[in-house]
Write a structure and sequence with these properties.
Layout lengths: L16 H18 L4 H14 L5 H7 L2 H18 L3 H12 L4 H18 L2 H19 L4 H15 L7 H10 L3 H26 L8 H8 L10 H24 L3 H17 L4 H13 L3 H19 L2 H13 L3 H18 L2 H13 L2 H4 L5 H14 L8 H12 L6 H26 L2
Length: 446
């Protein structure tokens, strides 16, 4: 075998695994983009073909699934489902609307700021899980279209998550590999994140902000809401907020304790379920648990499972490694060109594939550049990888976990986000953010 994966020798008809895996990958994404089949179904078919064709064994496919992401998503959906029953999201929606006097554009900016800040100190998936239901509630009350708000929250979550070590999984991986601290990320990435955030709001205002209008009657109705009456279960609310606070604290200290976020969130979900059901009889306990499980976005969960396997197929066949090697060869060892190539290639690829396997592939590539550029000169390359991978996730609807979570909520609320509609606005905005990052890296580090 000479170090090659066992699956390479068993690809159907003896075809090259790289060719087969790329064909499956391209076909899967093409059908997802066409929206002819449910995205969870096509991802499952693509994953199955990766195994049946011999590109992956079943064991390799299972190992390719990021169960930390799956577990985190599932657990946080359970926590959010229970918390929703208390009425706290309605409360937040009413307070937020009143603070801006029910002005639609003011509300959009407020929710964007809240999302970006929370995403910097939580993971961005958790943030959109908490914020999206609020947006759907308040936009319905105001009678304004929810899409501009959902679009903005997706961008704000990925932009805010770029600012810190714990905001986005690629940053966690980079920080661990390069031994970079929370404060180091904050110092070096927050300035450009603030500029990107402000710059992103401008075209959003030009496209949607000027046309967002609510009738005086709708605004008056929202201003007349009694936020205190929205809380239906004060006891459960206190328990839910305590658990959420503990989970957030757990995320912040997880790295030095060698704990994965999925473990912390999963324990928090189990604890909150216990607190919810312990006061009820067996029949009501079953109903409460069943309700929480029904609220999980299973379409999103299974789409991720299939997507992880499909991306593992092209990774195992060597496609991502070839791309990383191409970057190094194309720049011919030029330091500035290498940094720019890492930034832009990371952004474009992260818009169409999950950024986690790409970052995992690029980390050793950058580490191996130490003899060429010097170990002390690798920091700008890490920032290029972080900015490209995290901000690139805004380019398409499948570019980041947070995007798909928001899309799942929107679909269930009868306001589906179409892939092509999102792409036409999102990809140019993503390129703008990378252009800003290019200027920042060049002026500060290169």
């Amino acid at each position: 075998m000479h170090g090659e994966p066992a699956s390479v020798s068993h690809v159907i008809f003896g075809l090259p695994p790289l060719l087969v895996s790329l064909a499956i990958f391209v076909a899967t994404y093409a059908i997802v983009i066409s929206e002819k089949l449910n995205r969870a179904v096509i991802a499952a078919l693509g994953a199955g073909l990766m195994i049946l064709s011999g590109v992956l064994t079943q064991l390799e496919a299972v190992h390719g699934i990021d169960f930390n992401t799956i577990g985190l998503l599932t657990a946080m959906m359970v926590i959010v489902a229970i918390t929703q029953k208390t009425g706290v999201f309605q409360y937040v929606a009413i307070v937020a609307a009143k603070r801006v006097k029910a002005d639609p554009w003011g509300l959009l900016v407020m929710m964007a700021v809240v999302t970006a800040v929370f995403s910097a100190f939580l993971d961005n998936v958790t943030t959109v899980l908490l914020v999206t239901p609020v947006i759907l509630l308040i936009t319905e009350a105001l009678g304004v279209p929810p899409y501009p708000y959902l679009f903005t929250v997706i961008f704000a979550s990925n932009i805010g998550g770029t600012a810190t070590l714990i905001g986005d999984p690629p940053n966690i991986m980079i920080g661990s590999a390069a031994n970079l601290s929370f404060n180091t990320f904050l110092l070096h990435l927050t300035p450009v994140v603030l500029v990107v955030f402000a710059a992103t709001l401008l075209p959003i205002w030009l496209v949607w902000g000027r046309t967002l209008r609510a009738t005086p009657e709708a605004r008056a109705q929202v201003m007349a809401f009694d936020e205190k009456s929205a809380i239906t279960d004060p006891r459960l609310l206190k328990q839910a907020l305590a658990v959420i606070g503990a989970v957030i604290f757990g995320f912040m200290i997880a790295h030095p304790l060698h704990l994965e976020p999925a473990t912390i969130a999963g324990f928090g979900a189990a604890l909150l379920l216990t607190l919810q059901v312990v006061r009820h009889d067996a029949e009501h306990q079953t109903e409460d648990v069943a309700h929480a499980l029904r609220e999980i976005e299973w379409v999103t969960i299974f789409f991720f499972v299939g997507l992880f396997v499909v991306v593992t197929g092209i990774e195992k066949a060597g496609a991502l490694k070839l791309m990383a090697d191409w970057i190094v060869a194309a720049t011919q060892g030029d330091y500035k060109a290498t940094a720019m190539a890492i930034l832009w290639v990371s952004a474009v690829l992260s818009a169409v594939v999950d950024n986690i396997p790409f970052v995992a592939t690029m980390i050793p590539v950058i580490q191996n550049m130490a003899p060429t550029f010097g170990a002390d000169n690798l920091l700008p390359l890490w920032w290029a990888l972080s900015l490209g991978a995290c901000l690139g996730g805004n380019g398409t609807l499948v570019g980041a976990s947070a995007n798909l979570v928001v899309a799942g909520f929107a679909e269930r609320a009868g306001q589906p986000i179409r892939f092509k509609t999102f792409l036409l606005m999102a990809f140019p905005l993503m390129l703008m953010s990378i252009a800003i990052s290019t200027v920042y890296l060049y002026l500060r580090y290169l």
